Protein 1
Amino acid sequence: MKKFNQLKEVKEVYSRGENMIKFLKDSDQNKSNSIDDILISYDFQSGSYIKGFSNNPEFASIYCGALAKVINALGPFDSVLEAGVGEATTLCNLTKNLNFKPETTMGLDISWSRLKFAKEFLKDFGRNDVNLFTANLFEIPLLDNSIDLVYTSHSIEPNGGKEKEALEELYRVTKKYLVLLEPSFELASPEARKRMIEHGYITKLYQTAKDLKYKIIEYRLFDCYSKPVNPTCIMIIEKQNDNDNADKNLVCPITFTNLEKIGDHFLYSKDSFLAYPILENIPCLLKENSILAAHLKTNYQEYKTTHNIVYEPSRC
């Protein structure tokens, strides 16, 4: 979060319609996009995806219908997670086209503001059953093999150079299938490849999945994408394991220990002594959000009795 001291400048860049990630990346002369760059850029852009949806609902319908067709052929599933859910414009349209209703539907995003919009967008469509939470794509606060189907839609995209880390983390929480809708460097035109490099996008997702020896059952250009200079590819990875983990609860992103809800405003791990805020019913589970609170559950009066502490406040 070292770039948070540049937020005033970022707001001015955004108001001028300039590229915020480029500004932030250039400020420290990095060739790749940092987590700070991505978080700040997306948070300021919040609301733009819903605006885009309202301007072109037909595209969203076709795109999500095509994805639903793929998932319906793989399913049904009890649990579904969109990693990088943004404002839920994909998740909302996708789930209404599924032939089944998952018992658990989740969406994570690095930006709290995007989830604020997502929550209200889902509510407009009568959806109050989606579990939204902030998280880092590389530090997902879920246990191994916990979600039947995990999918992305251009959320790994800005993390060029971190393909291996992203794939390993998404694969870790996946129980059955990982479906990736991401830019394809191999299948892109020379113009699109140049653009991907300039923007710090991923360029080795497919090769990395092969190097990791994942079982890729499908890899092709997707049926629908909005920009020829940023073509969407679909890659489906099947995960085979004997671990039938039914625990889909959120965990501490640092220690992966259980979290319990304390009132309406915090989640707490009694094993790691770390607390995480809940802001407008959205759990904030970036590791940077953690608060060390070893005595959160300590009762002060019991503490005094146990330690034979006696004093008279009136005489102090």
Protein 2
Amino acid sequence: MNDLTFEFEWADPLGARGPELRATWARFAIRIDQRYASRVFDQNVKTVRESVYLPLYPIAEWVASNWWRLLFEIESSERAADPSYERRHDFRWAREGYSVPPLSFTAVGNVLQLQWMPEILSLHQLEFLETGSAYVSLGTAQQSLRAFVTAVTERLVACDISDTYLQQEWRVVANTDAEEAEFCVAAATLGFDPYDLEEAVAASIVAVAESLPTNIRREFFIVASRENLREQSAVIKDGIEQLRENRADLRSLRYFRDSIPPASANGLAPWEDGYDAARALRSDLKAGVRPIQSFDDLADILGVGHSQFLAAIVDQPLAGRAYEAIVATNHLEGPVFRTNPRHDTAKRFHVCRGLYEYLSGNDDGPWLVTTGLSDRQKRNRAFAAEFLAPSAGIRERVRSRVIPGSEVEELAKHYGVSTDAIVHQLRNHRIASIAW
């Protein structure tokens, strides 16, 4: 996984005004592995350097003020449309007139996606040069940001500056105990500021968190409706309890858990892990690129009885369309699935997403399959797409770099998936373009 490092060295503040700005003036660089998001061309002296000069106080204050949502609020179409979303996820909102590098933080579960891009700051006579994207583990990002803010607050103390807004905010964050942190993470995942919540909303978050198994809380809150938290959680909890009592015998599938490689630690995109897992499982099953056009085909490939496989899939409404499947293990240690009523093509895709959760899990679940954009959901979507419609098989059948829409439909029919799944496979694996 990639590293995130904030490099800084205290410098002469020259004509900076304000004690906290003068105290924290520094040479500042942002390094992501061996790449510098802060690399600039200085038009005044016609040189390229890796750092900028500015006060670190505004950046540290922005990090402290947005701490929980910066790290734990996962993007959705609804949140991305909210102008305030960018303000708490993009360094440019910490500028306050200074040359802060254009770096954005997108939380996707256990990792953060960092993105930076070129930008010209005419007033500063500077041009940020680099563009890039990298995945950094949540723990690494948290550690780096915490060390950075702590260093700035300690600098203020060393300069006899106290009781600034930054110091007040950071004192609250730094002194958060484990139980309170769980609440802050849940609230931030929903897009709330955990320190600015109505009492009734806070009580609902606590009650729902306590009612759900630990390992699905985050995925639940990522897509939950703020207005119906208790109702949705009750449906999910009831669904899990029903699945635990399901008597379908798919215990043989637990032996394929060793087929699924762990999530990579080298900074790859989450969906790459999903692709690798699908290829590994197909290889162990000796399935080649054989199509899976029905649940009977899926049962055959997995080597389980048709009747037992269908008995393990409960077709029953979940808590809204954002929740597409619940997966749990029953007393036989095999997976059982509850899905929203859908046609077989969509249901088969969601069952395969749930299969990934069961096979890649190191516990007894349960697991949620949702419309969310966490790293977990990206992995299981990619797994289902590659397992049902292997890119190697599609590549064998596609004879040109541009194909008509009718051929996409033929591929979808051959593999028993939606045309959208084929479109994503063609594009993501760079197999062909489509002429509709």
